[in-house]
Amino acid sequence: MKMKILAVANPKGGIGKTAFSVNTVHAAVEQDSPTLRIDFDKQGSFSLAHPHGPDYDPSKRYLKASDLFYAPEKSADAELEYLAPGQAIIRADYDELLKLEKAPDDFAKHPGRYLRQFSDKFEVAVIDTPGTINMLLKAALTCADAVVSPLTLGLYDTAGLAQLWQIIRDVKSGGFNPKLRMIGMLPSKVDTRDKMAMAELDALRKHPKFGPAILPFMLAQKVPVARAINLRKPVWKGAKSKSHREAGEQWKQACDHVLTSLGSK
């Protein structure tokens, strides 16, 4: 077993990175893949999406995201927090990650080295990233095998694609992670009833530079989808309406596609 690491990244907040990270984990679990969740966003939404498992012991010291940036000796007394057999999480710790945001870029190389010790324990690791450009985002891209980038439609959102492209280029060409693969960009929070948004998506798919990287899926913005996320359920489970079923199928197909492209199966 060799763990494959996926970074879900875009240097903009509020575009659905955490929702897609969570549902990708749901898809991996449904494939019986031992999965490690890693939260590099100090806001901790990815951590919040995963309640403690039945064996959680508040008296124990569990490995936190900031621990990955230091020598293992510093966290020798920490252990992985398991949510279920084969399912673990490394949670965000706000204060320490806040300090690390402005750490030297060389720190970005540390988590990949630390995570090697778990390579034979998990098939998949999913990293949720901050919606801003800082060392933590670079660290996620540095230790990842591949990256998928949710994006929303709109003037300010699509204008940031060039910025995202530049960050990935910097990581690949700057000696941080030359083998990083871009799985693609995933239209997220799409209002399928908005003709202007759908026209913009069509134009984006035809863009000579970005178009080839846009995945053939879209994550629709619907009330049942948001409700499923709030209930910590896969978007595709328990759909009652036709629109919810259709949206759920798109989410499931997108998550499965990303896992297949990652090479987890």
From TrEMBL:
<dbReference type="InterPro" id="IPR050678">
    <property type="entry name" value="DNA_Partitioning_ATPase"/>
</dbReference>
<protein>
    <submittedName>
        <fullName>Plasmid replication protein</fullName>
    </submittedName>
</protein>
<dbReference type="Pfam" id="PF13614">
    <property type="entry name" value="AAA_31"/>
</dbReference>
<feature type="domain" description="AAA">
    <location>
        <begin position="3"/>
        <end position="181"/>
    </location>
</feature>
<dbReference type="InterPro" id="IPR027417">
    <property type="entry name" value="P-loop_NTPase"/>
</dbReference>
<dbReference type="InterPro" id="IPR025669">
    <property type="entry name" value="AAA_dom"/>
</dbReference>
